[in-house]
Amino acid sequence: MQQPKPAVTVRFYGALNDFLPPERRGQDLTHVPQGSPSVKDLIESLGPPHPEVDVVLVDGEAVDFAHRVAPGSRVAAYPPFHSLDVEPLVRVGPPLPEVPRFVLDVGLGRLVGFLRMLGFDSLWRNDYADDELARVSHDEDRILLSRDIGVLKRGEVARGYFPRSTDPAHQLVEVVRRFGLTSRMRPFSRCLACNGPLTSSEPHEVQDRIPERVAERHSRFQQCQDCRRVFWAGTHQQRMQALVDKLRELENAG
């Protein structure tokens, strides 16, 4: 009689359970792998994309994504936990850059405007192909934001996040919390239209590109160094400032 192959026991913690069917969340999963797969391949075969994982323990020892999982092992995968100190452990993802930059897939066109409003260099096009998104993320060291799990699982992608919400404002809160962006925000320093940097401009420098009534009411302007679009503190900026204030309140509230 043929003996059954030894299984691997896998447990996902925290937000990694979002990528599992409801009936499999928060419990030990028994999986019979083919051979000795890498930790990365094992985890992704069960659902979660690797950029969502921060720490992996195999039989109680912290390992990296390349570690080969032997039959009979116990694997525990954890997402980033900002309230826990995991510094002594091996973290499977690269450290976050001091000034994070982003590239977003085609379905996140409204989120990109919010990120630019906060001052983050964020690329977006409505015709990005999956392979191009992965390549830009890798070559330019950008965090890939996508609601396409397949794109996040591509090997070139080192940093990424799957926004759970479909509401752009809620997505922004998720991304700010996930990457600890509050202290890095530089609101109203980047063009919402093209992503270029903004500089202060005198009224006479932009008077030929603003409505007459705006020139009469405002004396402070910013213009994009790339596309030369002009911005001023109207009601739209006031609404955005309220959102910035809310994000800072969320951080202070823990």
Description:
The protein is α/β, with parallel strands linked by helices. Helix content is 28%, strand content 16%. Strands 2-1-5-3-4 form a 5-stranded mixed beta sheet, with no helix packed on it. A 4-stranded parallel beta sheet has the order 7-6-8-9, sandwiched between helices. Helix 2 crosses helix 5. It is elongated, with a radius of gyration of 22 Å. The N and C termini lie far apart (58 Å). 28% of the residues are buried. The model has no long low-confidence stretch (mean pLDDT 90).
Topology:
Layout: E1 8-12, E2 29-31, H1 39-46, E3 55-58, E4 61-63, E5 74-78, E6 102-104, H2 109-117, E7 122-124, H3 130-139, E8 143-145, H4 149-152, E9 160-161, H5 168-179, E10 198-201, H6 203-206, H7 212-217, E11 221-224, E12 230-231, H8 235-252
Parallel strand pairs: 1-5, 6-7, 6-8, 8-9
Antiparallel strand pairs: 1-2, 3-4, 3-5, 10-11, 11-12
Helix pairs in contact: 2-5
Which secondary-structure class do the elements indicate? alpha/beta
Please report the distance between the alpha carbons of the first and last residues.
Answer: 58 Å
In which order are the strands of the major sheet placed?
2-1-5-3-4
Over the alpha carbons, how many angstroms does the gyration radius reach?
Answer: 22 Å
Q: How many E strands?
A: 12
Poorly predicted segments: none
Q: Strand percentage, roughly?
A: 15-25%
Shape field: elongated
Share of helix, binned: 25-40%
Order of helices and strands: EEHEEEEHEHEHEHEHHEEH
Number of helices: 8
| Nearest-integer average pLDDT | 90
Q: How many strands, which pairing sense, and closed or not: the largest β-sheet?
A: 5 strands, mixed
